[in-house]
Amino acid sequence: TLSSGIIGIEVYFPQTVVSLKELEKFDGVSQGKYTIGLGQDNMSFCGDREDVISIAMTVLDSLVSKYGISYGDIGRLEVGTETIIDKSKSVKTALMQLFESCGNTEVEGLDTTNACYGGTQALFNTLYWLESPYWNGKYGVVVMADIAVYAPGPARPTGGCGAVALLLGKGKEVKLIPEVQLRATHMENTYDFFKPNLSSEYPTVDGAKTISCYLRALDTCYSRFIHRAEGLTKQDNFSLQDIDYIVFHAPFHKMVQKSFARLLFNDFKRDPENTFFKDVQQFGNISMEASYSDKDLEKAFVTLSKALYEEKCAPGTFLAKNIGNSYTASLYGNLACLINEKGNDLMNKRIVLFSYGSGLASSMFSLKVIQSVQPIAQKLDMRTRLSSRIWMNPEDFTKTLQLREQRYGQMDYSPSNSIDSLLPGTFYLEQVNSIGCRKYNRK
Ligand code: ACO
């Protein structure tokens, strides 16, 4: 058994946000396409004052101050991101400027990149460090930070922006601990979402393929996870019922509902006689392959899973509905959201996480709550922060993305957006010099 795990979590999202209802009108698409079809309410975005480094600095500094630790107490810092602004220099090295005043330069860890999954690998690596003879007694921190922007078109409303910092350590302070035996991974070579165009911030994306890859990865991880869970619990019918809460990587909200329903379909395939499944018997003979494109099946299992979904999954979904996809930060923001919503109710509960990054890498793993997470919830104060954001109209959102296009790869400039909308304590980009060095300031 492990003794290392999560002590604290901090989340950051930009102050600027656009309503997807308004964006539907502005884009001239049918009413409900983004809000019902994708299930999203609002989308966070930032202008040219914030970049992946600044949002990572903001969330890390906020974690350090809220948890009353010093930069000198951190022995390892890893970053998960897929927002590339330099092909060589890691975001992690940029974060080292925050350590300067306390003189701590002995901090291992760099960036890990694979679409939305990098943060998960960074988390696993930091846990390995904590459990290894190389551990130097200090905290480990993992920062996940991304700015998700898409070219105009159907993928654009699935953008977003956010950053998460996890404080990891060993011993008495640990609140969430991984169940070592309960982890399953599936990786393979796919081209569903990727960024081959190095002169653009936008990905190349085959939307339908991303969804089928995600669901296939989910099926594979779940079946391996169940196999291990049955070994661990010595039972032969482990199912969703044995999971208290589940959080998913959330590209858009509808995907989370469908993923939850998909797990129930997997349970049905394993235990079709169970009376719980009496109304979906007609799907008994469908092959896994055919099941991905069967809309009737999807609908039937979304309906059947409604009550379970509300209980086990919904509490971890409102952050992503309100900020959009934050790639590597999405899953861990959802974990924070669950903690924010449920607080002490999570005591002794099993939380299962599903991480997916196109290309593809995926894992399903479990965290057990061993100590009250109420202090984390209090520090997050997520609902207040979400409701005090600044609403921008779709015209300004579109102009801002055009400005970001112009800034991508540009050198020798000072950002033109005002810093008025930033909250005190937020880090922002002050200048990019003629050879591409970036200078930051703190509001
Ligand atoms: N009212 C209600 N629902 C509507 C409306 C409307 N007016 N119009 C459309 N819809 C529904 C559709 O019926 C469909 O529902 P269904 O999924 O239940 O069948 C849903 O909205 C989506 O509409 P589509 O036409 O199928 O797809 P669209 O062209 O809008 O593209 C997509 C959606 C593929 C998700 C696109 O936004 C995309 O490519 N996003 C980026 C990739 C992504 O996020 N992939 C997920 C995993 S990988 C990752 O995390 C990046």
UniProtKB/TrEMBL annotation:
CDD domains: init_cond_enzymes (cd00827). SUPFAM superfamilies: Thiolase-like (SSF53901). NCBIfam families: HMG-CoA-S_euk (TIGR01833). Residues 4-169 form the Hydroxymethylglutaryl-coenzyme A synthase N-terminal domain. Coiled coil: none annotated. It comes from the Eukaryota. It comes from Galdieria sulphuraria (Red alga). CoA binds at residues 254, 258. Pathway: Metabolic intermediate biosynthesis; (R)-mevalonate biosynthesis; (R)-mevalonate from acetyl-CoA: step 2/3. One of its GO terms (biological process) is acetyl-CoA metabolic process. One of its GO terms (molecular function) is hydroxymethylglutaryl-CoA synthase activity. InterPro entries: HMG_CoA_synt_C_dom, HMG_CoA_synth_N, HMG_CoA_synthase_euk, Thiolase-like. Keywords: Acyltransferase, Lipid biosynthesis, Lipid metabolism, Steroid biosynthesis, Steroid metabolism, Sterol biosynthesis, Sterol metabolism, Transferase. This is Hydroxymethylglutaryl-CoA synthase. The active site is at 82 (proton donor/acceptor), 116 (acyl-thioester intermediate), 249 (proton donor/acceptor). Catalyzes the condensation of acetyl-CoA with acetoacetyl-CoA to form HMG-CoA. It holds the Pfam family HMG_CoA_synt_C. PANTHER family: 3-HYDROXY-3-METHYLGLUTARYL COENZYME A SYNTHASE, HYDROXYMETHYLGLUTARYL-COA SYNTHASE. Signal peptide: none annotated. It catalyses: acetoacetyl-CoA + acetyl-CoA + H2O = (3S)-3-hydroxy-3-methylglutaryl-CoA + CoA + H(+). Its EC number is 2.3.3.10. Belongs to the thiolase-like superfamily. HMG-CoA synthase family. Residues 179-443 form the Hydroxymethylglutaryl-coenzyme A synthase C-terminal domain.
